[in-house]
Q: What sequence folds into this?
C-alpha cells in the first residue's frame, strides 16, 4: 500500500471561520471536558487536511477554550456569590451566633472542596487563639487545639493579620512548629492548609481555615473567596456582641423603671401585708397561702421553693445574713428554723426591691417557717406509722397485701406504683455519742419529711435512713441525687444516698423490697469506696461497675445504652462502623494507623469516625466514655458468640 500526503487545497478555496468553529461550538454547547477540544484538530491532521484548515482549527480551539474557561469562571463566581449571599442573609437574621459560624465554615469547605474547614477565635485574656468551629474534623486532640500567637500557621496569621498558605505543613519551615500543634495536625492527617484573618477594623479576632489531607496548591481566587467568608464571620461576631450590649442596656432601663413604679405605694403595701399575714396565721393557712398573699401585696410572683429547688448560693447567703438577697432578677428569702433550712420564698422578676418591700418578704419567710414547724409537729405521729409500714415491707414478713395497701393509702402512698428504695448515711464523724445520736435524729426527721412530700415511706434502720419513694417520671439516679442534696441541706452534713433499680409489686411480694434494699446498700458502699461521699447514685450511674452492683445484670441494656446507635446503624445501612471502632481503639485512636488496619483510605476512616461522632455524641473520645465504649464492644462481640454471659 502506498502512502502519500494529500495535495494542499488550492489557494483559491479558502477555509471559512464558520467551518472551523462549528465543531467547537458543539463542544461548548455540550459542556465537554477540555481534553475533547483536541479531537477536531487531531482528526483534521489524521485526514491530511491542508495547513490553512489546520491553522484555522487551532485558532478556533484556542478561542473556544478561552470561552470555556470564562464560562467556567463565571459559573464558579456565581456559586461563590450565591454562597456569600446566603451567608449574608443568615447574618441579617442573626439569632444564634454558633449556627451562623457553622454555616460559614460548612460553605467554605464545600466551595473550596477541602476535607476540613475550621475557625479559631483569639483569647485576649490568655494571649492565644482557640478552636471555635470545625467541619469535617474527626480527631479529638485537633478539635481542642490552642495556638499561641506566632505558633504554627494559624498563630502566625493571628499575629500578622495576613493570609498564609502551605501545600505541605509538616515540611514548611516558615512556621514555628510545636509538639502540641504538630501532634494535633498529624492526628487529623492534614497536609495543605490555608488560613485568612478575621478582622474587625484593624484588630484580628480570629482565623478561618481550609485544609486538605493531601498536598494541594490553593489558587489566588480561592484565597480571596475564603477571605470574603472571613469578613462575614467577623461581621457576625460583631453583630452578636452589639446585640448582647443592647440587651444589657435594656435590662438596666427596665430595672430603673421598676424602682420608680414601686416607690409610690411602698408604705401602703407594708401595712396591708402585716394585716394579711396575721389573718393567715389565725385561720391556719399554709405556706402557699402566704406566698399568694405576698404576691398580691408586692405586685409580683412569690413562690415557696424546697431547698433543692432554690438557688443554692442565694439561699445560703440569705440564711447567713438573715435578710433577703438579690439573685439575678429574683429575690430569695431563706425559710429556716433552729439552724435548719426548710426552703425559701422566691420573688420572681422583681429586681428593683426597696427596703420596705424587702422587709415584707423577710417577715413572710418568718411566718412560713412557723407554719412549717407546726405542720412538722403534727406529722411526728405519722412518721412512726410510715416507719412501721416500711419495716414490715423490708423484713419480708407474711402480710396480707390488702392490709398493706390500706395502711399505705392512709399515708397517701400507693404500693402498686413503681418505687425506688434508697439508703442514706451521714458521712461526717461525730465528736461524741450524744452528737451522733442528735445528727441521726435530724437525718431520720428530714428523710420522713422527704417521704411525706413525695407520697412515700421512710424508716430508721442500722443507723441509716431508708426511703421507699415512687419513681414517677424521673429516674432512680435523679431521685438519689435529689434526696442526697436535700438531706445534706437539711442537716448541714454530707449525706450519701444509694438507690436501687425501679421495683414493682412490693405489696404482693414483699421480698422484692428487701432485695431492692440490699442493692441500694451496695450502691451506697460503692459511693464511699469511690470517694464520692455526699453524693447520690443508682447502679446505672456506675457504667460497667453498675453491672456488678445490680441484681439484674442487664448486660444487653448496658451495650444498647453505650453503642446501640452504632450497631443499629450498621444493621440498617450495611456499613462497617463497629469494626472501624474496634480498629480505631486497637490503633491507639490514630486515624492514620486505623486506615492501615482496615486497608482503606484515610478519608474513609475520617468519614466513618465523623458518622460515629454524630451517633455517640461529641464526648465519645473522652477517657471515661472511651473505656465504656471499648467494654461494650467486647461484650457485644461475646453476646454474638456461643458464650453465655452471666
A:
Amino acid at each position: 500500500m502506498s502512502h502519500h500526503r494529500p495535495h494542499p487545497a488550492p489557494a483559491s478555496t479558502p477555509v471559512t471561520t464558520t467551518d472551523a468553529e462549528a465543531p467547537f461550538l458543539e463542544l461548548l454547547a455540550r459542556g465537554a471536558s477540555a481534553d475533547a477540544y483536541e479531537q477536531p484538530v487531531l482528526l483534521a491532521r489524521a485526514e491530511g487536511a491542508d495547513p490553512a484548515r489546520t491553522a484555522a482549527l487551532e485558532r478556533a480551539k484556542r478561542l473556544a477554550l478561552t470561552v470555556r474557561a470564562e464560562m467556567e469562571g463565571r459559573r464558579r463566581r456565581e456559586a461563590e456569590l450565591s454562597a456569600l449571599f446566603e451567608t449574608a442573609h443568615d447574618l441579617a437574621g442573626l439569632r444564634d451566633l454558633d449556627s451562623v459560624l457553622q454555616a460559614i465554615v460548612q460553605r467554605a469547605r464545600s466551595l473550596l472542596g477541602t476535607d476540613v474547614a475550621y475557625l479559631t477565635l483569639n483569647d485576649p485574656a490568655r494571649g492565644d487563639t482557640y478552636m471555635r468551629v470545625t467541619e469535617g474534623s474527626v480527631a479529638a486532640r485537633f478539635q481542642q487545639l490552642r495556638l499561641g500567637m506566632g505558633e504554627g500557621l494559624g498563630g502566625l496569621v493571628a499575629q500578622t493579620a495576613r493570609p498564609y498558605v502551605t501545600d505541605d505543613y509538616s515540611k514548611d519551615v516558615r512556621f514555628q512548629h510545636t509538639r502540641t500543634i504538630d501532634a494535633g495536625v498529624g492526628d487529623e492527617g492534614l497536609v495543605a492548609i490555608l488560613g485568612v484573618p478575621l478582622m474587625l477594623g484593624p484588630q484580628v479576632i480570629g482565623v478561618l481555615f481550609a485544609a486538605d489531607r493531601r498536598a494541594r496548591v490553593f489558587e489566588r481566587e480561592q484565597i480571596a473567596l475564603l477571605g470574603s467568608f472571613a469578613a462575614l464571620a467577623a461581621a457576625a461576631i460583631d453583630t452578636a456582641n452589639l446585640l448582647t450590649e443592647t440587651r444589657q442596656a435594656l435590662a438596666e432601663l427596665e430595672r430603673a423603671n421598676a424602682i420608680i413604679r414601686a416607690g409610690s405605694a411602698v408604705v401602703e403595701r407594708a401595712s396591708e401585708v402585716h394585716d394579711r399575714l396575721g389573718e393567715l396565721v389565725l385561720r391556719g393557712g399554709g405556706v402557699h397561702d402566704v406566698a399568694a398573699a405576698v404576691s398580691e401585696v408586692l405586685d409580683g410572683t412569690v413562690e415557696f421553693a424546697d431547698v433543692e429547688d432554690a438557688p443554692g448560693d442565694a439561699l445560703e447567703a440569705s440564711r447567713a445574713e438573715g435578710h433577703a438577697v438579690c439573685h439575678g432578677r429574683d429575690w430569695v428569702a431563706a425559710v429556716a428554723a433552729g439552724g435548719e433550712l426548710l426552703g425559701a420564698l422566691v420573688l420572681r422578676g422583681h429586681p428593683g426591691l426597696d427596703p420596705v418591700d424587702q422587709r415584707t418578704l423577710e417577715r413572710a419567710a418568718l411566718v412560713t417557717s412557723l407554719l412549717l414547724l407546726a405542720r412538722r409537729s403534727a406529722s411526728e405521729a405519722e412518721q412512726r406509722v410510715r416507719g412501721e409500714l416500711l419495716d414490715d415491707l423490708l423484713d419480708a414478713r407474711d402480710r396480707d397485701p390488702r392490709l398493706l395497701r390500706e395502711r399505705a393509702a392512709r399515708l397517701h402512698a400507693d404500693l402498686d406504683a413503681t418505687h425506688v428504695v434508697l439508703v442514706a448515711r451521714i458521712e461526717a464523724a461525730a465528736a461524741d455519742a450524744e452528737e451522733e445520736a442528735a445528727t441521726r435524729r435530724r437525718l431520720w426527721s428530714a428523710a420522713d419529711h422527704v417521704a411525706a412530700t413525695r407520697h412515700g415511706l421512710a424508716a430508721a434502720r442500722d443507723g441509716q435512713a431508708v426511703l421507699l419513694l415512687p419513681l414517677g417520671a424521673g429516674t432512680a439516679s435523679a431521685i438519689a441525687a435529689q434526696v442526697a442534696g436535700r438531706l445534706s441541706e437539711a442537716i448541714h452534713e454530707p449525706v450519701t444516698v444509694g438507690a436501687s433499680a425501679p421495683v414493682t409489686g412490693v405489696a404482693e411480694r414483699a421480698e422484692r423490697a428487701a432485695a431492692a434494699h440490699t442493692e441500694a446498700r451496695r450502691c451506697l458502699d460503692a459511693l464511699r469506696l469511690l470517694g464520692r461521699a455526699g453524693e447520690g447514685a443508682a447502679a446505672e450511674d456506675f457504667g460497667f461497675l453498675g453491672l456488678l452492683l445490680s441484681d439484674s445484670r442487664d448486660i444487653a441494656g448496658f451495650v444498647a445504652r453505650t453503642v446501640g446507635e452504632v450497631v443499629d446503624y450498621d444493621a440498617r445501612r450495611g456499613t462497617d462502623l463497629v469494626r472501624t471502632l474496634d480498629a480505631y481503639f486497637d490503633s491507639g485512636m490514630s486515624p492514620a494507623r486505623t486506615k492501615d488496619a482496615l486497608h482503606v483510605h484515610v478519608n474513609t476512616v475520617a468519614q466513618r469516625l465523623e458518622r460515629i461522632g454524630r451517633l455517640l455524641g461529641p464526648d465519645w473520645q473522652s477517657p471515661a466514655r472511651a473505656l465504656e465504649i471499648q467494654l461494650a464492644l467486647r461484650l457485644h462481640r461475646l453476646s454474638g458468640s456461643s458464650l453465655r454471659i452471666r
